[in-house]
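anyone seen this seq b4? input:
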Amino acid sequence: MATSEVVPAIEGWFTEGEKPALIGTQCIHCKTYFFPKEETYCRNPGCQSTEFETVELSREGTIWSYAEHFYQPPEPYIAPEPFEPYTIAAVELAEEKLVILGQVAKGVAHSDLKAGMKVELVVEPLYDLDDKTHTVWKWKPLAA
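predicted toks r here
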């Protein structure tokens, strides 16, 4: 069996490896964080800067909210076949205070989660297409 090439589903949005991280930007003037990266103008109403630094965002956060989805998302999303329900978590990053949505890691049941739970960022396969495995960030509860 041939090994497929592993590529990010969204180029430039996250790093891979042992300690993956989301890639965002921070306004050089007001220090506001953005994800996905902002490169045009600062969205902070009190700032008019257009200068940003690319930064790796916190790998850990706290579940703010979560929901289990029992429907297959519409195109262009590619869902594995056969379709299985999945859970999305809204996670507030520890340092940046940004809320980032993402799927919950494989093997973590909806019933295993609760608001306020600490989670960490992981990277897992999302789908296979054209002999490539496309990966995405997901949230996994921290070991107690």
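The two ends are 38 Å apart (CA to CA). The chain has one domain: 8-141. kinda curious what u guys think
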